[in-house]
Design goal:
- There is one protein chain.
- By secondary structure, this protein is an alpha/beta fold.
- The protein folds into 2 domains: 2-173 and 351-371, 3-Layer(aba) Sandwich (Rossmann fold), CATH 3.40.50.2000; 181-347, 3-Layer(aba) Sandwich (Rossmann fold), CATH 3.40.50.2000.
- Helices cover 40% and strands 18% of the residues.
- It is built from 15 helices and 16 strands.
- The strands form 3 sheets. An 8-stranded mixed sheet has the order 3-4-2-1-7-8-9-10, with helices on both faces.
- Helix 8 links the parallel strand 11 (199-204) and strand 12 (226-231).
- It is globular and about 60 Å long.
- The two termini are 17 Å apart.
Length: 372
């Protein structure tokens, strides 16, 4: 097959969409398929044998590392020269129009992946009045797709409620070799200021309003013998640094590769207060690293975290309940160890190879229906 992918984010950005695309391109090459990736300019020229066609864009005010890439001349022509069998739309906000137009012009099936809950984001940026409009636009884009792939049951149910059609569940894999408890390092704990006997809470992700990291700032001061390490960066970092000034908190910025794996494996508990996740890749990485998870009972976390078995869920937005769950697990080392082991076992069942094979079946099924 010849697969063209259109995305609004790629390397050097660090997020779940980028991780998924990298794994997909690697899988396509390993199985003899050809790929073209259309991505914002500033990325690498190629990845896993796939050409990357650069798209012009402008930095987003709130996220200078991300670029707004509107529909533009040249995209459809380049796709026509590539002659794709399927167009996979991995970015649907600004590029949804472009993907929809290109698929119609080339008369090839369009497969959409719903990665980001933009309607939910509106509430966190004071734009709640745009929520209905966001659903309307995304529904227009996705209902032109032969298939829309949803990363979690919660996302699928939400989209179905809002009139989206032809929905299928497609989860995500995790690298259980890279993310493994054996990467625990006492030196890492010392480097983030952890004292002997201190419990280390770890957060990994963007530091942004929709991630609700402010709840961790609310909970931390009343948690005894506890240190918070925040891995990531974003527009909320300056405010968080001011709020946590003098507290037992450490900001690392973005970490990648072995440094990220060491951070996971060297902490005691993973905390994730976001209530806007369609999946939550970092939850899987934490579980693969043997960490118990405390997460908001929302979105992808409901699929990934078994409450009481691999972690604990709390009411979204409730800092008091978040603090209670952290405190309870913090004083139950045997339970934390059991949850970490159960999380590791669950992660081992979610290989990237299995997940990408499922995607290839979705592509093939779509092509067969197109030909019928």
């Amino acid at each position: 097959m010849r697969i063209a992918l259109i995305t609004e984010t790629f390397l050097p950005n660090v997020n779940g969409v980028v991780t998924t695309l990298c794994r997909l391109l690697e899988h396509l090459r390993a199985h003899g398929h050809e790929a073209l990736l259309c991505a914002p300019e500033g990325s690498v020229a190629s990845y896993a044998g796939a050409e990357i066609f650069p798209l012009r864009g402008v930095p987003l005010p709130a996220y200078p590392e991300l670029r707004l890439t509107p529909p533009q001349l040249g995209l459809t022509a380049h796709l026509r020269r590539f002659r794709p069998d399927v167009i996979h739309l991995a970015g649907t906000m600004a590029l949804g129009v472009a993907g929809r137009h290109a698929a119609r012009q080339l008369r090839v099936p369009l497969v959409g992946a719903y990665h980001t809950d933009f309607p939910a984001y509106t509430a966190h940026y004071g734009l709640g009045f745009l929520r209905t409009l966001a659903y309307r636009y995304l529904r227009w884009v996705h209902n032109s797709c032969a298939l829309t792939l949803c990363p979690s049951l919660a996302t699928l149910a939400d989209l179905r409620t809002h009139g989206f059609r032809r929905l299928r569940l497609w989860g995500r894999g995790v690298d259980t070799e890279r993310f493994h408890p054996r990467h625990h390092r006492a030196a890492w704990r010392a480097s983030v200021g952890a004292q002997p006997g201190e419990r280390v809470l770890l957060y990994v992700g963007r530091l942004a309003p929709e991630k609700r990291v402010d709840l961790l700032a609310d909970a931390l001061p009343s948690l005894p013998n506890t240190r918070l390490v925040l891995v990531g960066d974003g527009p909320a970092r300056p405010a968080l640094e001011r709020r946590l000034s003098g507290a037992r908190a450490h900001f690392t910025g973005y970490l990648r590769g072995d440094d990220l794996a060491t951070a996971y494996a060297s902490a005691d508990m993973f905390v994730f207060p976001s209530d806007t996740e369609t999946f939550g890749q970092v939850l899987q990485e934490a579980m693969a690293s043997g960490l118990p998870v405390v997460a908001a009972r929302a979105g992808g976390a409901i699929d990934l975290v078994r409450d009481g078995a691999t972690g604990a869920l709390f009411q979204p937005g409730n800092a008091t309940e978040l603090r209670t769950q952290i405190f309870r697990l913090g004083n139950a080392p045997a339970q934390r160890a059991a949850m970490g082991a159960a999380g590791r076992a669950a992660a081992e069942q979610r290989s990237w190879g299995r997940v990408m094979d499922e995607l290839l079946v979705h592509y093939q099924t779509t092509l067969h229906r197109q030909a019928a």
